[in-house]
Design goal:
350 residues, alpha/beta, D-Maltodextrin-Binding Protein, domain 2, 2 domains, 9-stranded mixed beta sheet, 14 helices, disordered N terminus
């Protein structure tokens, strides 16, 4: 119910924005223009803008940005229907890509370049979207109170050892929804429901803030462990804020394993819009974003891990890249998200 309410609110916002003739930071370009590609993106990073500028320099194709969160963009594309100028949809979560796919907003793309660059478990089996960068959902822990072997599996997050000692963001976080979706795929709903109840029992405080807030809370002694995405921690460890850098001297990272097969990873990725008026340009941009150059630039600038196993992570991300990623297909996360939300809500995870 909570997800449905949020989605309906997003639809209302998108329709209002569409009526005003704007979306995110810019209005859409003309429906068809051989010199542009209309990118509906839920990613808002300087490193991405640098990529689009590089693409334009290399191809002469202008990237027209229409920005918003994933649900707003999905609602907008739905409301635009056949008149949508969307060429390419990009989101920072496999579940969001699945929602766009389920709404029939993405079309299959056959590309030898993309198939060669992106492993099969990081893309839709029918080619409707492709992962471009990876982020691991891991544990930040107080190294003065917690041993690494106490946080080397996902089960341990919910164990009695950490009663009242866990910080975590809300159940609405797409990263948490996708993690719980992956656990449903691996464990089934009964064991996953038990895990969500354990997570709630272990909360040191009601969920609040983003991932960096959880890491800072560990340092402040509010909790001993926290769930976070890898790239937030890497930013803090290598950023300009001296306080955040100091935090990461005490707070360390653990890459827990799921059933002994590796760490849960999510993706940022994109797919060609179902009615893309500039389809060839959209495919060219998607192939560019999957290139070693682009994956390296994003990894360096935003501290995500490249999707391709053949592209090494550059500094400073490389210092955290030596982990085993779970081989599960990220395409399964989305179809479990509604059930994940139900289990989390039933457990009291707000």
């Amino acid at each position: 119910m909570q997800m449905r309410t949020q989605f309906m609110l997003s639809v209302a916002v998108a329709l209002l924005v569409g009526a005003c003739g704007q979306g995110g930071s810019s209005a859409p370009a003309d429906k068809a223009d051989a010199g542009v590609v209309n990118l509906y993106t839920a990613r808002h990073y300087d490193s991405d803008r640098a990529l689009y500028e590089r693409f334009t320099e290399e191809t002469g194709i202008k990237v027209n940005l229409i920005e918003g969160n994933a649900d707003q963009l999905i609602a907008r594309m739905t409301s635009e229907g056949a008149a949508s100028p969307a060429d390419l949809f990009v989101a920072a979560d496999a579940g969001a890509l699945w929602r766009a796919q389920s709404a029939n907003l993405l079309q299959p793309t056959s590309s030898a370049v993309l198939d060669a660059a992106i492993p099969a478990n990081l893309r839709d089996p029918e080619g409707r979207w492709f992962g471009l960068n990876r982020r691991a959902r891991i544990i930040a822990y107080d190294s003065s109170k917690v041993r690494p072997d106490e946080v080397d599996t996902y089960e341990e997050i919910a164990s009695p050892r950490f009663r009242g000692r866990l910080c975590v963001r809300s159940a609405d976080s797409v990263y948490n929804l996708s993690l719980v979706g992956a656990l449903i795929e691996a464990w089934g709903p009964e064991k996953t429901a038990e895990w969500t109840r354990g997570v709630v029992a272990n909360m040191a405080r009601p969920p609040e803030g983003g991932d960096r807030d959880q890491i800072r809370a560990v340092n402040a002694g509010v909790c001993e462990i926290a769930l976070t995405n890898s790239y937030y921690y890497i930013r803090m460890a290598n950023g300009d804020d001296a306080g955040d850098r100091e935090v990461t001297q005490r707070v360390r990272l653990a890459f827990p394993s799921l059933d002994g097969q590796g760490t849960h990873v999510n993706i940022s990725g994109g797919g060609v819009a179902a009615r893309a008026p500039n389809r060839e340009n959209a495919v060219r941009l998607l192939e560019f974003l999957a290139s070693p150059e682009a994956q390296t630039m994003v990894s360096a600038g935003n501290n995500e891990f490249p999707a391709s196993p053949n592209v090494p992570a550059p500094p400073p991300t490389d210092a955290y890249a030596d982990f085993t990623a779970h081989p599960m297909s990220v395409a399964v996360y989305g179809r479990h998200q509604a059930e994940a939300q139900t289990l989390m809500s039933a457990a009291g995870w707000r």
